[in-house]
Design goal:
With 470 residues, the chain is mainly alpha-helical. It contains 17 helices and no strands.
C-alpha cells in the first residue's frame, strides 16, 4: 500500500499545517473528503455490528463451549467494557497523533483481533480477544468523528456527514442480529467475527486516500485512565457475579473497589493538570443532555437486544436465524429515521427531536412488557420497532449537539465522551439484565424492560427541561 508504508502509518506520518481547514484537508485532493467519510462510516458499522450481532450468537457459543450465562455475559461485556473505559484516552490520542493515524492504528488492530475471535479455541481465549477488539474500537470511534469534522468544516455539511456516520451505526445495531443469526445458522458463530476482516481491509484502503490530519497538543491522563478501567471492570464483575452467585465476599470487595475507583477517577479529573475528561464540560447543557440520553438509549437498546436474543432462542425455541429475522422490521425502519433526524432538527429544533426520540424508545420498552412465549412472532417483531426507531431518530441530533457545543480542538474528546457513556450504558445493561434473568427468565425480562423504559422517560423529562425550544 503506497510503497513501504505500514498499516499503522495509514493514519499519516506527517500531519501538520492544515489545522483542519479544507485547503489542505478535505479539499486537498479530489475525493479525499468522501474517502474519509466512507472509511469512518464503514469502521463504525463493523464495531457496532460486533455488539448486536454477537448477542444473537451467544446461545451457539454457550453450546459450543459449555459456558454459563455469566460466561456469555463476559463475552459480550469484555468488548463493551474496554470500548467504554479506553475511549476517553483514545480521544486524546486522536487529537495528539492525528485522526487519520489513530484511526489506521485502531482499524488494523481491530481487524486482527476479529480474526483471533473467529479462531478462538476456548471461551477464555475468545473473551481475551474481545478485550483487544474493544480496545481497538475505542480508538476508532473518536478518531472517525474527528475525521468527519476535519473533512467537513462547515456546520451543515458536517451535520450531514455525522448523520451518515450515525446511519452506519444504526444499521449495524438493527441488522447485527439478522446477520448474526444468518451467519451462525448457515455456517458457524465464528463467521460473525470473520465478517469484520474484509470490511476492515476495505476501510484501510479508503483511509489511504483521506487527507492527512492535523495534530493537537494532548496529554495522556494515566491516573484517570487506570481508575476508569478499574471502576468499570469492578462494577461489571460485581453485578454479573453477584446476580448469579449472590453477595459473596468477593462480590462485596469488587463493589468496594468500584466505589473507591470511581471516587479516585473524579478526584484525578478534578485535580489533574491534563485530565482526559475535564469536569467543566458538564457545565454545558449541550454536553449533559447528549451524555445522559446516549446512556439511556444504549441501555434500552443493547439491553433489549441481549434479552430478546436469549428469549427467542432459549424460551421460544427458535433457531439463531429465526431469532435474527425477528429484528428485520427494526433494521428496515431505523435507517430512514436516522437520516431524517438532521432535517427534523433544522425544522423543529434539537429539543423536539431528542425528546420525541426518547419517548418513542420508552414506548418500545413498554410495549414489549406484554410479550410472552405464546405471542405470535410477527407481533413481537412489530412491537420491537419503536425501540429501534426512537434511538435512531435521537442519536444524530445528540451527536451534532455535543460536537457543536465544544471548540474544534475538543472534537476527539467530545466524541469520546459521548460514546464512552453510550457503551457504558450497554455494558451495564447486559450485566444488570443478565442478573435479573438469573432469578427467573420471564420475570427478569419484564423487570429489565421496565427499568430501561423508566430510565429513558426520566432522561426525556430532563432533556425537555434543559434544552432550549429551538
Amino acid at each position: 500500500m503506497h510503497g513501504t508504508r505500514s498499516v499503522a502509518d495509514a493514519g499519516g506520518e506527517a500531519e501538520a499545517g492544515a489545522q483542519g481547514q479544507r485547503g489542505r484537508g478535505a479539499a486537498g485532493r479530489p475525493g479525499s473528503a468522501g474517502a474519509a467519510l466512507i472509511a469512518a462510516v464503514l469502521g463504525f458499522f463493523v464495531i457496532t455490528l460486533d455488539v448486536s450481532g454477537v448477542n444473537v450468537a451467544l446461545p451457539a457459543l454457550g453450546h459450543a463451549f459449555g459456558g454459563s450465562l455469566a460466561g456469555l455475559q463476559w463475552v459480550a461485556d469484555s468488548y463493551t467494557l474496554m470500548f467504554a473505559a479506553l475511549m476517553l484516552s483514545a480521544g486524546a490520542l486522536s487529537d495528539a497523533v492525528g485522526a487519520r493515524r489513530a484511526y489506521g492504528w485502531g482499524l488494523g488492530v481491530f481487524t486482527l483481533a476479529s480474526l483471533a475471535c473467529g479462531a478462538a479455541p476456548t471461551l477464555g481465549a475468545l473473551t481475551a480477544a474481545r478485550v483487544v477488539q474493544g480496545s481497538a474500537a475505542a480508538v476508532m470511534v473518536p478518531a472517525s468523528l474527528a475525521l468527519i469534522r476535519q473533512a467537513f468544516p462547515e456546520r451543515a455539511a458536517r451535520a450531514r456527514g455525522v448523520a451518515l456516520w450515525t446511519v452506519g451505526g444504526a444499521v449495524a445495531i438493527a441488522a447485527g442480529p439478522v446477520l448474526g443469526g444468518l451467519l451462525t445458522t448457515a455456517w458457524t458463530w465464528r463467521a460473525v467475527f470473520c465478517l469484520n476482516v474484509p470490511a476492515g481491509i476495505a476501510a484501510l484502503l479508503l483511509l489511504l486516500r483521506a487527507a492527512r490530519s492535523p495534530r493537537h497538543r494532548a496529554a495522556f491522563d494515566l491516573p484517570g485512565q487506570l481508575t476508569a478501567v478499574l471502576a468499570l471492570a469492578a462494577l461489571t464483575f460485581a453485578v454479573i457475579e453477584g446476580g448469579h452467585g449472590g453477595i459473596t465476599g468477593t462480590v462485596a470487595v469488587a463493589a468496594g473497589v468500584a466505589v473507591l475507583s470511581g471516587a479516585g477517577f473524579v478526584a484525578a479529573e478534578a485535580r489533574g493538570r491534563a485530565p482526559m475528561l475535564p469536569l467543566e464540560l458538564f457545565r454545558q447543557r449541550g454536553v449533559v443532555v447528549p451524555v445522559l440520553a446516549g446512556f439511556a438509549v444504549n441501555t434500552a437498546f443493547y439491553g433489549g437486544v441481549f434479552v430478546l436474543g436469549l428469549f427467542f432462542q432459549e424460551q421460544r425455541g427458535q433457531s439463531a436465524l429465526s431469532a435474527g429475522l425477528m429484528f428485520v422490521p427494526v433494521a428496515v425502519v431505523t435507517t430512514p429515521f436516522n437520516y431524517f433526524s438532521p432535517r427534523a432538527v433544522s425544522r423543529f429544533g434539537a429539543r423536539a427531536v431528542v425528546v420525541s426520540g426518547l419517548l418513542i424508545c420508552a414506548l418500545g420498552c413498554a410495549e414489549l412488557l406484554a410479550v410472552g412465549t405464546g405471542t405470535p412472532g410477527w407481533a413481537v417483531a412489530l412491537l420491537m420497532i419503536p425501540l429501534g426507531v426512537g434511538g435512531s431518530f435521537a442519536m444524530p441530533a445528540l451527536t451534532s449537539l455535543i460536537l457543536d457545543s465544544l471548540a474544534p480542538e475538543r472534537a476527539g474528546t467530545a466524541a469520546a465522551l459521548l460514546n464512552t457513556v453510550r457503551q457504558t450504558g450497554g455494558a451495564l445493561a447486559i450485566a444488570v439484565f443478565g442478573a435479573l434473568l438469573a432469578g427467573g427468565f420471564m420475570a427478569g425480562m419484564r423487570e429489565s424492560l421496565a427499568l430501561a423504559g423508566a430510565l429513558v422517560v426520566a432522561v426525556a423529562v430532563g432533556a425537555a427541561a434543559l434544552l432550549p425550544r429551538r
